[in-house]
Amino acid sequence: MNLYPLLRPILFSLDPETAHEVTLKLLNTANATGIGSLIYPTVKDKPVNVMGLDFKNPVGLAAGMDKNGDYINALAALGFGFLEIGTVTPRPQPGNPKPRLFRLPEHQAIINRMGFNNLGIDHLLAQVKLSGYSGILGINIGKNFDTPIENATEDYLIGLRKAYPSASYITINISSPNTKNLRQLQQGDEITALIARLKEEQLKLQVKHDFYVPLAIKIAPDLNEDEISHIAQLLLEFKIDGVIATNTTIFRGAIAGHPLAQEAGGLSGAPVKTASTRVVRGLASELNGKVAIIAAGGILSAEDAQEKLTAGASLVQVYSGLIYKGPQLIEDIVKAL
Q1: CA-CA distance, 135 to 55, in Å (whole number)?
Q2: Among positive and negative, which fits the CA dihedral 86, 90, 94, 99?
Q3: Mean pLDDT for the chain?
Q4: Could you tell me whether strands 215-219 and 109-112 are parallel, antiparallel, or unpaired per DSSP bridges?
Q5: Could you give the C-alpha distances from 308 to 51, 78, 244, 283, in angstroms and in order?
Q6: Which CATH superfamily is domain 40-336 in?
Q7: Which of 15, 47, 171, 201 has a CA that sits 20 to 30 A from residue 111's CA?
C-alpha cells in the first residue's frame, strides 16, 4: 500500500528540515508498532557482492538522511540493500545557521547547506550498537568545521579508527560544498597525502581487529576530466575499495531563474543526474572494474538507476529521490534491475 502520495503534500507544507525530522519519527513509530510491515513495499532480495561484501540488493540509502544513526532499523525496514549513515565528525557540531534546506519541486531538487550538523561519532556508534542492525552499514566520516584544512587528515583518522569496528565499509567525505575548503582535499598533492595516510591506517586496523573494512571515497560531480582521471589513478595506486559518485553540485545552470537558485549550498536531485553519470562513466573507463563504483545523484526512477549501472556503477544510492517519490522507489528499482 503506497501511502506516500497522500502524505507528501502534508510533509511538503512543512519547513523542509521540520519535514525531515517528522518523517524519520513517523518511520520510527511505524517500525516500532509493526505498521510498517503492512504498508511498506515488499522488496525482494537481489543479492550482489561488491567490495567483498554481500548486499541483499543494490539499492542503498545515501548519507545525510540519518546523520546520527538514530533511525537505522526504521530505514532498513523500507527494503534498502544497505544503509549509509553520517556524515559524522569527531566532535558534535550544530552545522550552519537555519534555514539551510530548500525544496525546488518544479525541478525535483533540493539545495542544502547543512554543514555536517551531527552529535559526534561517539553518539553515532552508540546508536549503531543499540540498533543491533546486521545488514550492510556504511559510516560516512568528515572533518569538524573548525579543524584547519591542513589538519583535516587527523579528523579523518579519528573517524576511521572509531568507526572501523562497527562499519561494513567507511566513506571518506571530501566533497561536501558546505564545509569551508573541504573540496580542495580532492585535488593535487592533498588528496594523494590523504589517501596514502588513510590506506596505511586501514591496513593497521585490519591487523589490530583481524578483519578488513573497505574504504570508499565520496567525490563531487563538478570535477573535470583530468581531476577524475587523477583520482581514479590514486584509487588504483592505493588499492582503495570503492568510490561514491557523486555528492551535490555547486552549479546552478539546471535551475537558472528559480527564486532559490542563488541560495548557497549543494544542489541534489534531478538537476545533478547528468553530471553524476558523467563522473561514473569517466571513473569506469579508468578503473576497469578494479574499484567498485557506487552511484548517487539524480536517481528518481528505475530508469535513472539503470543508467548509472550501465555507465559502470555496481550499486546505487538514493536520497532526494526518496523525498520526491517515497519508499516505492526502492521496490521499483530493485524489481527493474
Answers
A1: 8
A2: negative
A3: 97
A4: unpaired
A5: 18, 22, 12, 12
A6: Aldolase class I (3.20.20.70)
A7: 171
- The three cell numbers of residue 132 are 543491533
Q: Measured in Å, how far apart are the chain's first and last C-alpha atoms?
A: 22
pLDDT in tens, 271-317: 999 999 999 999 999 999 999 999 999 999 999 999 999 999 999 99
Closest CA to 235 of 282, 184, 259, 199: 199
Q: Is 250 exposed, middle or buried (0-12, 13-18, 19+ CB in 10 A)?
A: middle
Is 176 one of the annotated active-site residues of the chain?
A: yes
Query: Which residue, chain included where needed, has cell 521496490?
Result: 331
Selected catalytic residue, list 131, 176, 276, 320: 176
Domain boundaries, the chain: 40-336
Peptide bond into 248 cis (omega under 30): no
How many other C-beta atoms lie within 10 A of the C-beta of residue 71?
22
Query: 219 near 247, Cβ under 8 Å?
Result: yes
